[in-house]
Amino acid sequence: MSSGHLSSFLNAIEEARVCMKALNEAQRRLGKRLRCLRRLSQPFVLEEGIKRLPNEVLAVIFEMAHYLDGEGPVQFALCVSHVSRRFRNVALATPLLWTTIHDSFGENQIREFISRSGRLDLNIKMPYSTDIECFLKVIKGTSHRWSSLSIIEQETEYVMMKLGMTDLPRLRYLSYAFPVELTIFSTPRLSQVVGWGCLFKSPAGSYLLSNLTHVEFRLYEEDESFKFLATTLHSMKNLQDLSFLLEGRTGEDILLSDNAAYPKPHSVHIDRLAISIVGNMQDYSAPLFDVLIHLRPSTVELSINSNAPYRHLLNSKGEFFPYGSTIKFEIPQTIDVTTTLVNLVQNWDIVRTVHFDTPMAHSLSEWRQNRLHHDDWERIRSLDTLRFMNCDKFSESDIEAFTTKLFQTEAENGPRSLEIVSCKLISEDFLLGLHDEVGDRLKWTI
After folding, report:
1. Which long-range contacts (CB under 8 A, 24 or more apart) does 86-89 make?
2. Residue 275 has what DSSP assignment?
3. 401: Cβ–Cβ under 8 A, 6 or more apart, which residues?
4. Beta strands, E only, 169-228
5. In sequence order, what are the beta bridge partners of 443?
6. DSSP label of 446
7. Do 294 and 234 contact (CB within 8 A), yes or no?
């Protein structure tokens, strides 16, 4: 090739570079213009789309937004009815939007909401109020329509009795800030309860608990009613979902009464058991676990924010508590994942899925130091799914060694999947290479 040909090629390359630079600049400017046009046109596009929506579809959208509004102080119904004449007409013709009654409403607004709600069930929100009796007098005639009731003031129960508001035939959901004596109310459809403290002020009337399916107890500070917690729990014959929050608990011990009268360990099936522990609560969590030993949940969720999280996994006999086919740990403090996993599979053959959300977990290399036995590895391989999420101290070498050991058997003899989710030190390039070695049983999300 002559020097003339080389010069021609170099000139052509330079021309191509200049053209590419011009094209890139043109692309940048066009991209910027497109983004600007899209931003400016978006309100008109939305307006045109809304205009084309039939009123029936718009009403459905409003109803969905109403459910999403939750406990917010701003009422969605009022906001949407002030947008336009059409929105107001649709909102007024949609009774569901007006079914939530707050005691912060004025009397006229309460009556207007009740009028617009038709005959639908009502959600009654009673936060802190200076005059709960006046509020209850306004809504007294609607108590037969209440499906949801939130009680914050301690005097609410007394005032309701005083006004004769004890028949709540549609009530399905109750939240409270003080123990409630349900025996004074008629609540044949009550199935969900959320509140601070034990549900009953005494163990009497526990027959009412048999209808409950979803219960959340927030155990906080001193409350003498907790002595009846065991009796209360064992009276819930149809329980499906049970949650506890333990925080700052310093009250009396749980009254266990006669253990022989209670169901056998792991004999009562429920769908979900969730326990959240804040602070060093071992003196309380251990006896609580003793009370819960009769349950056989499909899923156990344990959230432990304590300086000694492992101690909060044991009952009063020092036995490992979590029991279920799916176990989920959320522990922001330091914990040995390897030891926890081995203890879990050693104690319970029922375990099939284990999730660790443990940002401060020790390195996975601990398994080498602990020298796991062959039987331990076989138990771990019997799992269907093992997930490590937000395990920010795990290194790529840890994951590689653990995964290679875990998947050294044939696919039919090992876990279906090992999932690595959002672990800071693990790159996708590394996981792609590891996937080439172990196959599709390794899954990840960066």
Report:
1. 86/55, 87/58, 89/55
2. E
3. 364, 365, 368
4. 173-176, 192-196, 214-220
5. 419
6. -
7. yes
Q: Is the dihedral of CA 212, 355, 288, 196 positive or negative?
A: negative
Calculate Rg over the CA atoms of the chain.
Answer: 30
User: pLDDT digits over 91-104, tens only?
Assistant: 999 999 999 998 78
Identify whether the C-beta of residue 351 lies closer than 8 Å to the C-beta of residue 344. yes
Identity of the amino acid at 46 = L
CA-based end-to-end distance of the chain: 51
Q: Which amino acid is at 325?
A: S
Which amino acid is residue 390, in one-letter code? Answer: N
For residues 102 and 109, is the Cβ–Cβ distance under 8 A? no
Tokens linked to 154: 């301690």
One-letter amino acid identity for 436? Answer: D
**Residue corresponding to tokens 């006669």:** 258
Cα gap 354→401, rounded to integer Å: 19
Longest dimension (CA), the chain: 109
C-alpha distances in angstroms, 216 versus 156, 213, 240?
21, 10, 11
CB-based burial, 291-318: b 16+ in 10 Å, e otherwise:
bbbbbbbebbbbbbbbeebbbbbbbeee
Among candidates 379, 380, 446, which has minimal Cα distance to 418?
380
Strand pairing partners for 264? Answer: none
Torsion angles phi and psi, residue 124, rounded to 5:
-105, 120
Those residues with Cβ within 8 angstroms of residue 266's Cβ, 6 or more apart along the chain or in another chain: 293, 294, 295, 296, 323
Reduced to 3 states, what is the DSSP secondary structure of residue 432? helix
Do the beta carbons of residue 136 and residue 129 sit within 8 Å? no
Q: Where are the domains of the chain?
A: 8-44, 325-446
Q: Which residue has the tokens 């924010």?
A: 305
Q: Which amino acid is at 39?
A: R
Helix (H, G, I), strand (E, B) or coil at 91: helix
Determine what percent of the chain is predicted with pLDDT higher than 70: 87
259-268, 356-365, 383-392: which range is least confident on average? 259-268
Nearest to 274 by CA among 234, 246, 255: 246
What separation in angstroms does the CA of 384 have from each of 41, 355, 396, 412, 425? 50, 11, 23, 11, 25
- Is residue 149 within 8 Å of residue 111, measured between CB atoms? no
pLDDT tens sequence across 9-34: 888 888 989 999 999 999 999 999 99
Q: Which string of DSSP letters, residue by residue, matches 119-148?
A: T--EEEEE-S-S-HHHHHHHHGGGGGGEEE
Which residue has 């959600």 as its token pair? Answer: 123
> pLDDT tens-digit profile of 148-171?
998 877 788 888 999 999 999 999
Q: Yes or no: say if 150 and 127 are a contact pair by the CB < 8 Å rule.
A: yes
